[in-house]
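Lecture 7 notes: from sequence to structure.
We start with the chain below.
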Amino acid sequence: MVASVFYLLRFLKHLPYVIILFMRVVAGKYGGRPLKTLDGKTTRPTTDKVKGAIFNMIGPYFEGGRVLDLYAGSGSLAIEALSRGMDTAVLVEKDRRAQAIISENIQMTKEATRFELLKMESSRALNIVTGIFDLVLLDPPYAKEQIVEDIEKLEERQLLSQDVLVVCETDKEVELPEEIAGLGIWKQKIYGISKVTVYVR
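Predicted structure tokens for the same chain:
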């Protein structure tokens, strides 16, 4: 039996997309509820451990606010933010399979009206979103250059609140600038193979 499970896991590892059912909302209103995610070439799921660490860095709870998750993947981070007290979230995702997973995860909250899913490239979304964001989540595939470009665009379009938190998740080898568009590094920590960097004004 154990051998069979081992070989099954080895097989699944090489599939381009695998739905994993054992992620969850870590804390807050939706705490403990299961989340689906995609493990594949176009998305990089944030583990529950790293997710919990991120929100311990920046919260862990909030008294309202608006979230932008620019590379949403499964939507896990934005859902966690609302579970912990944020009011509403805009999620951006270009991959169709990931979009379907996000929609399912949003339905899990039973509060779908608090979420807006934009099915498009991040660059297009940055040109059409309006309003002010208090928490921005960035986990792009080509981290350093894209993060700099995204933050500069967000600031140019005046989409960031005065007390904004910009959370960037990258591979641990990536070195981000100390300052981008008037925002500076507030906190930075490494968790396994991931590095989390938080920018503030």
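Points to note: Residues 96-109 form the longest helix (14 residues). The chain is about 35% helix and 30% strand.
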